[in-house]
Amino acid sequence: MRTYKDVFAVPEFRVLFAGQTGAVAGGTMTMLALSTLVFAHTGSPFLAAVAYLAGFLPQVLGALTIGALADRLPPRPVMAGWEVVRAATLVLIASGALPVWGMLAVVMVVGFVESPIRAAGLALVADLLPGNGYVLGRSVLNMAVGAMQIAGYGVAGLLLAAIGPKAALLAAAGMALAVGGIYRFGLRARAPRSTGERVRSGTRALLGDRAVRGLLLAQWVPNGLIVGAEALFVPFAGASAGVLFMAAAGGMLAGDAVVGRWTSPSSRLRLAVPLYVLLAVPYLMFAFSPGVWVAAGLVAVASFGFAGHLGTQERYLEAVPEQLRGQALGLAGSGMQTGQALAATLTGTVAEAVAVNWTIVLAAAGSLVATALLWRTLTARLDVVRSHVPDLR
What domain count does the chain have? Predict the structure, then answer.
């Protein structure tokens, strides 16, 4: 597969694309509505922030403990059924029957269980799009995530202004039901990827290998610290923060389009370190407190560097045994989201004592240090990485 047209020629990928874009839009609406609802109940900015991140925080724990379910359960009924469960939890939260702590607990339980479910979807992408097709498919999905986040924030904002957060939660529940229907009637039935007893030791095998740990850290740390910098856009730019968020989304979309479509595996290997460096360097200019439009230009250029993760994900997918593919992708994705949430918490804490623009600079500097420490992992040849990873078959 060499073009996006080739990717979309696969019928089941079109189904996954529709389902995942709908899920992202609904998830974005949920995060904003829940944060608004909790703030309305408590008046606490801290609890509002916790509500916004609550679904991300337990995901890596879910990947570590029940991640093997991504490979041991049939994907279609699991993915479709989970959207029905998610819709029911959103209706419960919107009903007003739960106290604030109950809302947060439900969201965290959902985040914990959701990890292997999302991993099953990512593994299905790899099954449907072998070889270079996987990078093209992930590139398309990443671009869709950015677009649907913008759309989700826009729709949720309109609903919040017009009829309140409970209506936004109910709209997100309706979206989840629609996504469940897309999966149920659009995907064909498949057997579990693996039912072997040895798969139970998959997480231990993945984390116990130095090469795989390095590839996981390369997906979690440099990018996560930059997301922590993005978490400070509101205190940095105030009412103009939306300009910075749109610039970040635009830069990320451009990077995924260019690198995903017009590079080969070997060139993505060579581009990994330069793109990771590009991701951080423009943020160092925040030391000079740039105006919002200059800052937006810096953010757009930096966000192009997020495309460096495409090559890292490709090497990671090639490195792990096929029967652990779902579990491995779930661990990578869940760790990334949890890392971003923790990085945002860290930068927010630092910004209580250090000027916001200098906190952004510190996050960028930390990302550069992480990239330097991971240089060998980011430049290792695929055959070298694969030779280190145990095959559990």
Answer: 2
Does 160 lie in the same domain as 184? yes
Query: Regarding predicted confidence, which is higher, 334 or 128?
Result: 128
**Distance of alpha carbon 68 from alpha carbon 246, whole angstroms:** 36
Q: Average pLDDT for residues 272-289, to the nearest whole number?
A: 97
180: pLDDT strictly greater than 90:
yes
pLDDT of 13 over the 90 cut: yes
C-alpha distances (whole Å) from 68 to each of 117, 225, 323 are 10, 28, 10
- How would you class 158 by CB atoms within 10 Å of its CB: exposed for 0-12, middle for 13-18, buried for 19 or more? exposed
Computed over its alpha carbons, how large is the radius of gyration of the chain?
Answer: 20
**206 and 269 housed in the same domain:** yes
pTM over cut 0.85: no
Q: Collapsing DSSP states into helix, strand and coil, what is residue 164?
A: coil
For the record, the structure tokens of 228 come out as: 């922590």
Please say whether the beta carbons of 389 and 328 come within 8 A.
no
Shared-domain flag, residues 207 and 310: yes
Fill in the DSSP letter of residue 51.
Answer: H
CA atoms within 13 A on the CB side of 252: 24
Local confidence band at 153 (pLDDT 50, 70, 90 cut-offs): low
Residues shown for the chain: 393
Task: Tell me how far the alpha carbon of residue 87 is from its chain's centroid.
Answer: 20
